Amino acid sequence: MGYGKRTPKGEISIDNHLGRIRLRWRHNKQRHQLNLPYSYTPENIHYATVKAAEIKLDIMKGYFDPSLEKYKPPVTIKPAKVKTLEELPAVIAGPVHLLFLHELAAKFNVWGNNIRNIDVENSIDYLYTRKVLEKWVDVPIELIAEKLNAEDWAVTTYNRRLHYLKTFFIWLLTNGIITQNYLADVCRKKDKNKKKTARREPISEKEISSFLKAIRNDTYCPPASRFKHSYYYPFLLFIFHTGVRNAEAIGLRVRHIDLEKGQIEISEAFARTIKGANHAARIRKDTKMGNTRYLPMSDDLRLLLIPQMEMKAPDDFVFLSPYGLSIDDRMLQRRIFKPVMIKLGIGDKDLYVARHCFGTRAVQQGMPVTDVAYLMGHSTIETAMRNYVSVNKPAVSLPAINLSRN
């Protein structure tokens, strides 16, 4: 499905060699290969991408080390080993019935890493949920609902952590680690005063057009700027066109674009972690809802994507930063997106407004809510209904009913 089948000449390929990551390339008519001490798994691919970028930069500057010693990772630095399911019995062995909440922290790591397949240390939501358990030292397990309610959290934070902990407690009970699920009957909170974030309120099509035109023409780009605003025009146009999440657009790869079928596969994301939004801090993971969707490719999207795919390997990102790495959406929002929005008089807006504009525009144009939910990657239509369908307008008539007479 990719645009190309082989790594372009002069590029560094990343492949699987006996379960480990291997880099291969040619320089000065010599073949080179570098075996990295990392398993060939999605969460470790970013190590290879960063290393490949380092090697390419040295080649460009004339500092390439043909012995490759410079590029070999220190022996002591290894990615954390996640235990396999076969090893789980040994991990959860010990006291069968735990009594205090802080004792659950270690089990939370096992559940998160092995059952949920989440890198807990690099996931903001999971990491801080575990830290809550660590904080509740010598608090009896049966008081967990009371402790959750006592926390001064926003409703969304409470509901999110309650969801994680309820799923976690089901696993604990199933494995005989606890004798009773004290969260089974705890309900989510409802936010009666919830208001939509003004920074994500959708903008009009005219405002979208004005913004994209300013980006394309570098209207507000400082003269001393190292990189022009227009460099990011394809990426910004793509997210306004498709409504995909930021991390999904950043993680879009050439092989996800099928020009023959005219569709775009959205099946993974290159997501931020607690370490930051830069390339080295991100991890490769599933979409937010863990689903795969296929977006139809319009003529405009085809013309946009083809130049972004040229001379790239199937596993390369479609959209790259000026340094050849993944786009840092946090810096893009702070240095370009927000300043241009403000200067245009549109207001203080987040990059995520593009997604809300897409959903609102789709509903306003009469697209079925089921289609909107699918295109946006929602697991149910509830989210699309809540965010994009307005019921404030009075109905002009009742639906007709045909009562035929016998």
Task: Give the secondary structure arrangement, pairings included.
Layout: E1 13-17, E2 20-27, E3 30-39, H1 45-61, H2 88-92, H3 105-115, H4 124-135, H5 144-150, H6 155-174, H7 205-216, H8 233-242, H9 246-250, E4 257-258, E5 263-266, E6 268-271, E7 283-286, E8 293-296, H10 299-309, H11 329-343, H12 353-364, H13 369-376, H14 382-388
Family: Belongs to the 'phage' integrase family.
Keywords: DNA recombination, DNA-binding
Domain Tyr recombinase: 198-401
Could you explain the architecture of this structure?
Strand 4 (257-258) and strand 5 (263-266) form a beta hairpin. This protein is of the alpha+beta class and 406 residues long. The chain has a three-stranded antiparallel sheet, covered by helices on one side. It has a three-stranded antiparallel sheet with strand order 4-5-8, with no helix packed on it. Strands 6-7 form a two-stranded antiparallel ribbon. The chain is 37% helix and 10% strand. It folds into three domains: 13-71, no CATH class; 85-174; 198-388, hpI Integrase, Chain A (Orthogonal Bundle), CATH 1.10.443. It has 14 helices and eight strands. Helix 3 (105-115) packs antiparallel against helix 4 (124-135), helix 8 (233-242) packs antiparallel against helix 10 and helix 8 (233-242) packs across helix 12 (353-364).
